[in-house]
């Protein structure tokens, strides 16, 4: 078994007695799990914005100022901390001035990356930022670097955030918004090594420096476009190119998508899969930890004070499109497999909370590993939704370092750790989240909590079959259910983590 030695948490093979054991360590430092690790991403892609979030005031679908009421309510429950927009690849084609002012005067454009559909710009800056206010989330705007100008970016910042009098703020007021919005997070380009302009890393870095020096505002967190997966050359080159001006970027982005096959031409089905694709998906998703470690090691060289954070602003599963759906709309279903993928990734992000300050699942509604799917009037919460709801308790909690001794989940001649875990503490409650990747067996786990607790309860997300999903017009099969803990004394708990499941334990200290 590959031993993953982590900074905060580490998992090793089971001990000599063949026992799986999770030990919660004393909190030595106050590492906060930033709530933004539970962030999401919304792009003008397929039916994410139109139909998914926004149906317009005249729609028969119940809405609040054009925003779907059912989606708004579900997202409020989810406590979405941050939402990235307008892309993705779309962002580097987006000219924000197309999306302001009277809707009937807004120009239409062709969405060249996603299905070649007509984008009428009826959802623009005001609609996005007002939506964020409505659901109580922080906006994260992605600036057009690939086909935009520094002036255009500078104008957007002023239009959105300035309270001074200027042509841009006058325009904003004319368009109905007196007060500026608070926007802290600014991405300067998206995937500029690919869809964001196909740039070489040193070329992009110069452009980034140019943009960044004009994107100014109080408390801004500016994000430099980082690598895809394990492209360490990109990271090394851009950080060298910053030439010690590390204050130009507060975050470096990382994108990593989990494809079962690893083949972009034949990724695999989202619903119709056997144990081979189950195993491959979970193995591939776990690679992200290695990629995080590789990039952090490079960041440490250039930023020994560790001021720059890693922002995993696109992650999740990517399967073949659902049969019968449009090319470029990236529509997929979401099964128990996605729930376990979500649990594994969120445990990993928590355990690196000293360096990862944000992560954004791709994408929030109707695209890739969504938390919500809509069809006409109907809406479902996916298994991934319920994992996010389960894990919400980690938002802004203090990380508890853990040591996990886990057996392997073996398939053919390969293996991965069967269990992953992370833990945090907030308001005298210890929260522990655990995933079991083994689809065939429940795993006994002894949890040494390290602290005396008064009471304990558990919750679980799983399904009868690994391919189970929530479908339109049917009762949801996968929801959060109660989970029964085993024998306990005041500092130890015996657990039986069911096959293919995600579990939350909450230990009350007072
Ligand atoms: O999330 C879909 C696409 O994946 C995004 O537009 C792009 O940034 C990435 O390649």
Second-tier CATH architecture of the largest domain? Alpha-Beta Barrel
Number of helices: 9
| Whole-number total of structural domains | 2
Q: Which parts are unreliable, with pLDDT below 50 for 5 consecutive residues or more?
A: 1-8
Bound molecules: alpha-L-arabinofuranose
CATH superfamily of the largest domain: Glycosidases
The total beta strand count reads 27
Overall description:
The chain has 510 residues and is α/β, with parallel strands linked by helices. The chain folds into 2 domains: 2-28 and 401-509, Sandwich (Immunoglobulin-like); 35-396, TIM Barrel, CATH 3.20.20. 23% of the residues lie in helices and 26% in strands. It is built from 9 helices and 27 strands. It has helices spanning 69-78, 125-135, 150-161, 167-174, 201-212, 232-241, 275-302, 336-351, 383-391; strands at 10-13, 21-24, 39-41, 63-64, 67-68, 82-85, 109-110, 118-119, 138-143, 185-188, 221-224, 251-258, 309-317, 356-362, 372-375, 378-381, 398-400, 402-406, 408-411, 414-417, 419-426, 429-436, 443-448, 455-461, 481-483, 492-497, 501-508. An 8-stranded parallel β-barrel has the order 3-6-9-10-11-12-13-14, surrounded by 4 helices. The two termini are 39 Å apart. Residues 1-8 have low confidence and may be disordered. The site of alpha-L-arabinofuranose (AHR) has 10 residues, from loops.
């Amino acid at each position: 078994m590959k031993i993953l030695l982590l900074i905060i948490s580490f998992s090793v093979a089971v001990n000599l007695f063949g026992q799986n054991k999770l030990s919660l360590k004393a909190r030595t430092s106050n590492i906060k799990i930033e709530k933004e690790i539970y962030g999401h991403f919304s792009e003008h892609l397929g039916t994410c914005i139109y139909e998914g979030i926004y149906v317009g005031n005249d729609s028969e679908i119940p809405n609040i100022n054009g925003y779907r009421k059912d989606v708004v309510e579900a997202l409020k429950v989810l406590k979405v901390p941050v939402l990235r927009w307008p892309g993705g690849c779309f962002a580097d084609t987006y000219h924000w001035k197309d999306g302001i002012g009277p809707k009937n005067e807004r120009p239409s454009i062709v969405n060249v990356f996603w299905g070649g559909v007509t984008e009428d710009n009826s959802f623009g800056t005001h609609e996005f930022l007002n939506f964020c206010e409505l659901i109580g989330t922080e906006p994260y705007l992605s600036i057009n670097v690939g086909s935009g100008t520094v002036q255009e970016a500078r104008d957007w910042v002023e239009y959105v955030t300035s309270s001074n009098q200027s042509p841009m703020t006058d325009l904003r007021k004319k368009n109905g918004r007196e007060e500026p919005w608070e926007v802290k997070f600014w991405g300067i380009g998206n995937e500029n090594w690919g869809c964001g302009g196909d740039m070489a890393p040193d070329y992009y870095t110069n452009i980034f420096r140019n943009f960044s020096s004009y994107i100014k505002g109080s408390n801004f967190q500016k994000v430099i476009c980082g690598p895809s997966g394990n492209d360490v050359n990109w990271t090394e080159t851009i950080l060298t190119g910053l030439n010690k001006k590390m204050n130009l970027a507060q975050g470096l982005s990382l994108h990593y998508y989990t494809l079962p096959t690893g083949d972009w031409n034949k990724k695999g089905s989202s619903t119709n899969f056997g144990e081979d694709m189950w195993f491959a998906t979970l193995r591939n998703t776990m690679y992200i930890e290695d990629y995080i470690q590789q990039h952090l090691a490079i960041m440490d060289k250039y930023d020994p004070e560790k001021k720059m954070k890693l922002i995993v602003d696109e992650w999740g599963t990517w399967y073949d499109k659902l049969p019968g759906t449009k090319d470029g709309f990236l529509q997929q279903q979401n099964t128990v497999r996605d729930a376990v993928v979500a649990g594994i990734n969120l445990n990993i992000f928590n355990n690196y909370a000293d360096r990862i300050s944000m992560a954004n699942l791709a994408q929030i509604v109707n695209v890739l590993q969504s938390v919500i799917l809509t069809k006409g009037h109907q809406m479902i919460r996916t298994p991934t939704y319920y994992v996010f709801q389960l894990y919400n308790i980690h938002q802004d909690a203090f990380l508890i370092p853990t040591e996990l001794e886990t057996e392997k989940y073996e398939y053919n001649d390969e293996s991965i750790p069967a269990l992953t875990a992370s833990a945090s503490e907030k308001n005298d409650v210890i929260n522990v989240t655990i995933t079991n990747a083994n689809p065939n067996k429940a795993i006994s786990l002894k949890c040494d909590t390290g602290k005396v607790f008064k009471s304990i309860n558990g919750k679980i997300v799983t399904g009868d079959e690994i391919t189970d999903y929530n479908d339109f017009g049917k009762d949801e099969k996968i929801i959060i259910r109660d989970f029964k803990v085993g024998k306990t004394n005041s500092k130890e708990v015996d657990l039986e983590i069911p096959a293919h499941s995600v579990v939350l334990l909450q230990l009350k200290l007072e």
